[in-house]
Amino acid sequence: MVLGLDGKPLDSSSSHIFSDSGFILLGLSSNPQLQKPLFAIFLIMYLVTVVGNVLIILAIHSDPRLHTPMYFFLSNLSFMDICFTTVTVPKMLVNLLSETKAISFVGCLVQMYFFMACGNTDSYLLASMAIDRLVAICHPFHYNRVMNPRRCLLMLLGSCTISHLHSLLRVLLMSRLSFCASHVIKHFFCDTQPVLKLSCSDTSSSQIVVMTETLAVIATPFLCILFSYLRIIVTVLRIPSAAGKWKAFSTCSSHLTVVALFYGSITYVYFRPLSMYSVVKDRVATVMYTVVTPMLNPFIYSLRNKDMKRGLRKLRDRIHS
């Protein structure tokens, strides 16, 4: 028997009552004294993320020498990182200064949809960048033919299409669930695992579909990245000079750093059964890939990249002139 907030039993026809009225997002902390400090910290992080990624996009588009496949994917990755953080952080900032912290059921599903769509597109763009490095290092004489503008555009469109279809399937599954007495999400946004914990429906079939389909969608770009770097390592080890090996590996260091940050935290959060879900640990891991990684990406790709440094200086000179 399912009980309502008034203690009276709800029949099956009323089990969606709390779905219609919405959810309460508990946020990162329920401590009132931490709300304003957290607001200041995440506002700064969000602004740094937006400004940093916008500068990367502008630098790439303003410098003709950066109009290459690698930087085409990087500019789209930067744009997707802005969208990725915008899906969750502004709502979290509003809730940190609000007493209600509410989100409607439809709003929750919309947030979930775009969060997954942007996150998955990020992973496919990282895979596309790995393929670009594979072709550049292992088949340099065929690079321009293989990584032509048409193929790069098709890779981008394929990344977006697969990601949005995955998100649509996941949201459709979530919309069929019933939510009863509890409607407090112990998270700062509508993520799959915290919302599934609230459902009074049998979620075993949904969990199996979610785990299987998520494994396929996320594992595909990850295995692509893994295969690409195994090929790169084999090719680089055949280079006779140490300087040549270092030069080849240095072109991949920024990408590998971002991949490790992104996939490390995602694997920890999503590839575990619901019974092993931990509120505090998952919040920290989720902040890593939803806020910290998008904020660090502009620094990772620009600090050790001479081409990006030159592009940023060129953009600065153009602004000042």
UniProtKB/TrEMBL annotation:
<dbReference type="InterPro" id="IPR000276">
    <property type="entry name" value="GPCR_Rhodpsn"/>
</dbReference>
<feature type="transmembrane region" description="Helical">
    <location>
        <begin position="215"/>
        <end position="237"/>
    </location>
</feature>
<keyword id="KW-0812">Transmembrane</keyword>
<feature type="transmembrane region" description="Helical">
    <location>
        <begin position="38"/>
        <end position="59"/>
    </location>
</feature>
<feature type="transmembrane region" description="Helical">
    <location>
        <begin position="249"/>
        <end position="271"/>
    </location>
</feature>
<keyword id="KW-0716">Sensory transduction</keyword>
<feature type="domain" description="G-protein coupled receptors family 1 profile">
    <location>
        <begin position="52"/>
        <end position="301"/>
    </location>
</feature>
<feature type="transmembrane region" description="Helical">
    <location>
        <begin position="71"/>
        <end position="90"/>
    </location>
</feature>
<keyword id="KW-0552">Olfaction</keyword>
<keyword id="KW-0297">G-protein coupled receptor</keyword>
<keyword id="KW-0472">Membrane</keyword>
<keyword id="KW-0675">Receptor</keyword>
<keyword id="KW-0807">Transducer</keyword>
<dbReference type="InterPro" id="IPR017452">
    <property type="entry name" value="GPCR_Rhodpsn_7TM"/>
</dbReference>
<keyword id="KW-1133">Transmembrane helix</keyword>
<dbReference type="GO" id="GO:0004930">
    <property type="term" value="F:G protein-coupled receptor activity"/>
</dbReference>
<feature type="transmembrane region" description="Helical">
    <location>
        <begin position="152"/>
        <end position="169"/>
    </location>
</feature>
<dbReference type="Pfam" id="PF13853">
    <property type="entry name" value="7tm_4"/>
</dbReference>
<dbReference type="GO" id="GO:0016020">
    <property type="term" value="C:membrane"/>
</dbReference>
<feature type="transmembrane region" description="Helical">
    <location>
        <begin position="283"/>
        <end position="303"/>
    </location>
</feature>
<protein>
    <submittedName>
        <fullName>Olfactory receptor 1l6-like</fullName>
    </submittedName>
</protein>
<dbReference type="InterPro" id="IPR000725">
    <property type="entry name" value="Olfact_rcpt"/>
</dbReference>
<dbReference type="GO" id="GO:0004984">
    <property type="term" value="F:olfactory receptor activity"/>
</dbReference>
<comment type="function">
    <text>Putative odorant or sperm cell receptor.</text>
</comment>
